[in-house]
Structures are given as structure tokens and as C-alpha cells.
Amino acid sequence: MNRVRYDSQKSRVYAAEADVVKDPDFAPAMREYADITELWERAVQISKSSWWLKEVGPYSALPRVNASLRVPGRATYQHGMLKFSKDALVEWKLLHELAHWIIYEAWGLERETTPPHGRLFGKTYCALLQRFCGVNVAKAMKRAFKAHKVSYSKPYVRKEPMSEEEMARRMERLAKAREAA
């Protein structure tokens, strides 16, 4: 049985988005589209950009988009399709769902190992916001992410491997802690 990795940041990402829509710096991302056709045209425009070619690659098969959701204000990415409710045709929701699509479809990462709202999602989403809505929009989202403790950048990676002495010291400390427990 395939099991999708737990999405520990989902509620924090949604809370950050709920707060950031009130920020005046986020206004360019609040652009509304009249219908699903107009939203689709924007998705095509984004996929033809130089940013897309550099970051995503020459991936030609864009996801299908429809306005079939009945829950008000909702957008989702499911099985290679972006679904929106008729009142959720907004720029930032399109970019949010495109970030999911890029990670899973264009880059081919596995759902079992890559959390839907993990660091890579946050980084990709902020990059999309910066390129297609402006630097101030991306900064506003990053502020909201920080306020809600959402991880959105690469994790810290130790530059030098641990010395044998340091490893021995840590193992000794671990053994003492286990004995004490």
C-alpha cells in the first residue's frame, strides 16, 4: 500500500495565506479572473515564460484546469488536474496549485516522499509569486510564512563531515542519555 507522506505544514500554509491576503503588499496577487478560460490563458502565459523554461524546463503538457469544485473559495490539485470553485479564480491560488503541479508532474517527485506543503513547495510557490506577481508579494508571503513557522527554503546542510572524535563524543552522550532514561 502506498502511503502519502504526512503534510505537517498544510494548516500553517493555509493560515499564512489567510493572513497575507489582508496585506496591502499582496494586492497584485489578488487579481481575479472572470472565468476558467481566462485563468487557463494565464496558466499558458506562465508556462511560456523564460522563468518557466529555466526553472521547470520545456515541459509542454500543462495540467487540465476546470471549475468543478462546489466548495466556495476552494482550489485543489488532484491527479494532474487543477480544480477551482467559480469564486476562487484568483492569481495566488493559481500559483499555489501550479507549485504542486511543478513538483509532482514536471519534476516527477514522488508523493510518498515529498510532502505536499513541504520546503520545496514553499520555495517553488515563493519563486512563482516573485516572478509573476512581484518581489513585494513574495516578501509578504515569506513574512507570513515566518509568522506561521512555515519552512520554505532548503534545509541546513553541514558543509564538513563530522570528525571521528565528534562522532564518538556524540555517541557517548547518547549512550549516557539512554542509560539515564
Outline of the structure:
With 181 residues, the chain is mainly α.
What features would you describe in this structure?
The chain has 181 residues and is mostly helical. Helices cover 50% and strands 8% of the residues. It contains seven helices and three strands; from the N terminus they run αααβββαααα. The protein has helices at 10-20, 36-47, 50-55, 91-106, 119-133, 135-147, 164-180; strands at 64-69, 75-78, 81-85. Strands 1-3-2 form a three-stranded mixed β-sheet, covered by helices on one side. α1 packs across α6 and α4 packs across α5 (119-133). The longest helix is centred in the last third of the chain and has 17 residues, at 164-180. The protein is elongated, with a radius of gyration of 20 Å. The model has no long low-confidence stretch (mean pLDDT 86).
